[in-house]
Amino acid sequence: MLANPALERLTKNPMPRIALFILACAVFVSAQENPSQPPQQPPAGKPIPNHTVPKPPNAGQKSTDDQPSTTFKVSVKLVNVYTTVVDQHGAPVGNLTKDDFSITEDGNPEKIALFQRESELPLSIVIAIDASGSTKKDLKLETDSAKRFARDILRPQDRLSVYAFSETVEEIVPFTSDLRRIDRGISEIIAGSATAMYDTIFLASKALMKHDGRKVMVLITDGGDTFSSTSYEQAARAATQSETLLYSIIVVPVANSAGRDTGGEHALIQISQDTGGKHYYATDMGSLDVAFKQISDELRTQYLIGYYPSRRLASSDFRRIDLQLAPGVANRNLLQVRHRVGYYTSPLE
């Protein structure tokens, strides 16, 4: 048998065979750890993630043209619009019908699905009294008038809460129809120093949000905010989102601007208008009582107009509502319609 020199070398020296064996094992293990896998599918029954779904506003998105535009979705539920109509003298008009109104959302006509006169439905009312140092001399005037208003407006089916605010906001009387408890609570209000007006609007609006039906806040103040941690925008949004009608009574001498916070007054007037409420100026006990009387009369002569939004998607979180009187309404040009200017589709934070 002929000798094979290569075979003799492998027989005499086994190291090459061992090295070859180790190399083969390494290749095999690597193939097991890194197999060529197809893309994984989501578990059955779960939606495939959609990375183009719009994000909430201010969620850290870069403002670039190649990103999908943000849209907001509203659930198809009834939108309630509590409405007040008054004549040129400020007297409520209570004899209108469904056909006397037309309504749009973001400029799109909507069909009125609900129309009611609201004189008999329950009221949830917050009376918020400014007890800051700047109103100390008027505090007795404010509290006495507030007591008369409570006695005039409250019915067995209504509930009223009393707030006092200075550098802090305190619910003096929780929601109740007990007039003696309300009178006693109002009498216990004492003067403080600073004014947390926006905090009061925000907190009272959140409290009213838990109630059904008509919601009203009557705020008695000199119009200045000096201590709130809540911003004007946050307070305005809370009032709008809770469907609260804000009536503000600004206790200042109208003819004398010395010491007045006119910027605060204008902010309060704007929130009142945007919620469908109204502002009043009061200089003495008589004008305070007149303001309370007008508020009471309005709350007994309101309309509830409801519709289901026809559009579910929009480019804004805020939907604007516009309510108009029909052309055939008598003295239409002399009448004023007040209602909240819109609503938000995302929850209040």
Kindly describe this structure.
- This protein is α/β, with parallel strands linked by helices and 349 residues long.
- It has 2 domains: 72-118 and 303-344, no CATH class; 123-299, Rossmann fold.
- The chain has helices spanning 5-12, 15-33, 139-153, 179-187, 197-208, 232-241, 262-274, 285-299; strands at residues 72-73, 79-86, 101-105, 108-110, 112-117, 123-130, 159-165, 169-176, 214-221, 244-251, 278-282, 303-307, 313-314, 318-325, 336-338, 342-344.
- The strands form 4 sheets. The protein has a 6-stranded mixed sheet, with helices on both faces. A 4-stranded antiparallel sheet has the order 5-12-2-15, with no helix packed on it. A 4-stranded antiparallel sheet has the order 4-3-14-16.
- Strand 7 and strand 8 form a beta hairpin.
- The longest helix is centred in the N-terminal third of the chain and has 19 residues, at 15-33.
- It is globular.
- The model is unreliable at 1-12 and 22-68 (pLDDT under 50).
List the helices and strands and how they pair.
Elements: H1 5-12, H2 15-33, E1 72-73, E2 79-86, E3 101-105, E4 108-110, E5 112-117, E6 123-130, H3 139-153, E7 159-165, E8 169-176, H4 179-187, H5 197-208, E9 214-221, H6 232-241, E10 244-251, H7 262-274, E11 278-282, H8 285-299, E12 303-307, E13 313-314, E14 318-325, E15 336-338, E16 342-344
Helix pairs in contact: 3-4, 3-8, 5-6
